[in-house]
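User: I've been going back and forth on whether these two constructs are worth ordering. Before I decide, could you fold them both?

Assistant: Sure. I'll take them in the order you sent them. The first construct and its C-alpha cells:
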Amino acid sequence: MSEQTRSGREVRKVALASLVGTSIEWYDFYIYGLAAVTVFAPQFFPQVSTLTGTLAAFATFAVGFIARPIGGVVFGHLGDRIGRKATLVTTLVTMGVATTLIGLLPTYAAVGALAPILLVVLRLVQGFAVGGEWGGAVLISVEHAPESKRAFYGSFPQLGVPIGLIASNAMFLVLAAAMPAEAFSAWGWRVPFLLSAVLVLVGLWVRLRIEESSEFVAVRRAGSMALPLASVLRHHFPQVLCGIAMFTGITGIGYMAATYTIQYGTSTLGLPRAPLIAIVLVVAVLEVPLILWVSAGADRWGLARTIVAGSLATAVVAAVFLPLLATGSLLLIALAVAAARWASAPMWGPSAALAAECYPTEVRYSGASVGYQLGSIVGGALAPIFTTLLLASPLGITGAAGYLVLITLISGLGALAADRIVRRSGTREAVAA
C-alpha cells in the first residue's frame, strides 16, 4: 500500500491498539520485577541469607526472560502463519491469566517449597506471553505505517515499556502509602497482580477492533511458509545476531534503571522504598514524549544513526551509573536513573522499525521476535545478576560499570551491522511498498 492510499485514521488506530496492549503486558511484567525486589524474597525464599534471597528473587525475575525466546518462536510461527491480530489477542490473554494467578499464590509459610515452584512456573508463562507480544505489536504498527513515519509509529508499542513502568510503579507507590508496611507485605502486594484481569479486558476490546496489514494479507494469500523460523535460521541468521546485539544494551540498562535501582537502594543502601519508586515513576513519565520525539527524528536522521548516537550517550552514562547510585543521595540517584533511561531513548524508540526492516514479511514476526528476546536475556535478564555478582567480587564497582558500558556499545554495533544488511537485502523497500 502506498503512502498516499494509507488511511491515517487506520494507522493511528492500529498504533493505539499496539500501545494499549503492550502497556498492559509490560505493566504485568514490571509488577513482577517490583515485587521481586520488594516482597518476594521474604515471602517465597525466607530460609536463606539476604544475599541469596536477593539473587533468588532476581533469578525468578530472570526466568521470565528465559521463556521469552520460546514465546517468540511459538507466537512468531503463529504470527507469520495465521496473522498478527489473532496472535496478539492470545498473548494478551495468556499474560493476564498468569499475572492474576500470581496475585493468588500462597506463600512459603502456607505451602512450603511449592510456593516458589508455582511462582517460577507462572513467571515462565509471563515470559512466554511477552515473548510473542513484542514482535506482533511492533510489526502490525510498522506494516501499517507510511514509509516516512515507520520509526515514529513503530515507537508506539515501544511506549508500552515506560507506560507499563509508570502504571506498575504508581500502583505500588499508592498501595505502599495507603497501608502499613506489614499489610503491604502480607497482602497488599497482591492487588496490582489481580488488577491485571480488568486491564486485559480493556486490551482485548481495543485489539479486536484492528485489521491485519495489507503486507501480511498479500503474503497469506500467496501461501504461508511452513516453517518460518527454519527459514530465518537458514537465510537470515546474521540479522538474528544483529538483533541480539542491538537489544542487549538497550534492555540491560533499561532494567538496571527500572528495577535494580530500587533493590540496591533498599537492600544495600537502606533507603526507603517510596522515594526510589517515585524517581523511576517520574523519569518514565518524561521518557514517553522523548521516545516519540527521537523516533520521529529518526525517520529523518536515519534509524541506525539515531541508535548509535543513543548507544554512545548511554555508554557515557553507564560508566557513572553505579557510582552515582553508591553515593546514597536521592538527588544523585534520580540523576543516574534519568540519565540512563533518557539517554537510551534514541536506541529504544527506533529499534522496532530497524528490527522489522531486517526481514521479509513472511518471516518477519519470527525473526524480529527471536532476535529481540534473546537480546533481552543477554541484557535485561543477566544485567542485574552480573552486576550484583561483580559488585561482590574483587572487581567491585569498576568491573560492574565496565560491564554496563560494554553492553551498551554492543547495541550500537548491532544497529550498524543490521542497517548494512538491510541496505544490501532491500527489505527496507519491501516494508515501505
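The second construct, handled the same way:
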Amino acid sequence: MIARRGVTAVLLPVLLAAAAGCAAQQKGAPRQEGGAAPGVTGTTVKVGGVLTKTSASGYSTKDAEIGAKARFERANAEGGVHGRTIEFIGAEDDAQDAAKGDAAAKKLVQKDQVFALVPVHAPNFGGATFLEQQGVPWFGWATGPQWCGTRTGFGYNGCLAPKQGDGSQTWWGRQMAELLGGAEGKSVYVQTSDSSGSKYGGTTISQSFTAAGFELAGVDSGLPAAAPPPDWLPYVNKIMTSDDGGPPDVVVSVIAGTKFNVGLYGALKRAGYKGTLTDATSYDVAILKDPASARALDGVIAAPMFEPFESTAPEIARLKQDVEKVAPGTPLTQHLAIGYWAADIFLDLLGKTGKDLTRERFLDTANGSYLYENPGFGRIEYPKDHTEPNGCGALVRLEGGAFQVAKSMKCFDNVPLK
C-alpha cells in the first residue's frame, strides 16, 4: 500500500555522503532555441551516465549501469517512446572525485551530445552546477545536497538534504513502529560517525523515529569516520546505559560501511544486547558470502528505498526478467536497483513530454506538477521533491543467512525539519 498524500523520504547507504544542507540554488535552465534538441533524432534519444565505478576505498556503484541498461532495453523492445529508442552509451567513472565528475558531465554533454544523464550515482558528483547551468536533465540516487534546489536534477528518492522547515522523512520510523507493533513506550538510540553527512543523517533519522512515537534515548556522533575503532567498548557502554541506565529498544546505525556495522553489532551482541538493530546499508548480497559478517548482522533490519528483490510484487519480477536478459546471472544489488528505477522515471517523463521533444519541454513537464507512482520505488512528485525526500521505503531482515521482506514499500507524510 502506498499512502496517497505526503511524499518524502530518506536514506542512504552512501547516503551518508549526503551533506548538511541543500546547496545548489534553483536556477532557470537556458531555453533551447528552435531546431533539434541535442541527443535527439527522429528515431533515437541518446543518454549516458556518471557512476563511481572505482574508488580508493573500493566503493563502487557500477551495477547501476546494468540496471539502467536493463530498463532501457525493455523500453526499446517495446518500440521505444513515441517512436524513439534509447541510445544508451554507458556511464563514465568519476572515481569518487568531484572534479572528475564535472569533467565527465561536460564530456557527455559537449562531446557525446547526450540529451540527459541517466543514471547519475556518485556520492561526490561534481557536475551538478554545470548541468544546471546548461539545462541538462540528470537522474539517479540523491545522496547529497547537490541534488537539492535544482531544476534539472531528479533523484528517484527526492532530496535527502532538506533545509530547516522543509519536509523531512518519517517513513523509516513509521515502518519500524508498524513492524514492532507500535512505538509507545519504546526507545531509540542513533549512532552516527563524525562525518558531516552521517551527522546530518542522524538529525533527519532521529526525527523520523520521534515522529513515529519513539522516545529518543540518545544520539552519538563521536565515532571516527575514517576507520572502525580498535575498541568498541566505550560506544557499547554508552548505548547499553542510554535508556535510564538500561539499553534502548532500537539502535539505528547511520554509518557508511559494513565493517563498521559488523564491529558495532558484534560488540553489542557480546554485551548482551537483545533489542532491534537497523541501518540503511546492510541489504547487500556480498554480506551473505562472508559467514562472519552474516552472523554479526543476523537479525538486522535494513531499510532500502525500493521494493526488495525478495518481494512477490509484479514490478520486481519484471525487473529480474529485464536484468536477466541483458546480464544473465548478475547479482541483484541496491546500486542495480537505483539505476533501474532512475531509468524508469526518465522513461515515464519522456512519454509524458510527448513527441515534440526538447530539453525545455521535458523540464517544463517534469517541474509542472509531475506525479508518478510505482510499487517498485513508491512515488515521486516534482517540483516538490526537489527540496524534500519522497517519503518512501521498505524494510528487509537478514535471518539465517537470507534476506526476507519485513515491510514492503510504503510512503508516509513528511514533517518539517526542525
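Notes on the second construct follow. The first strand starts at residue 44 and ends at 51. The chain has twelve helices and 16 strands.
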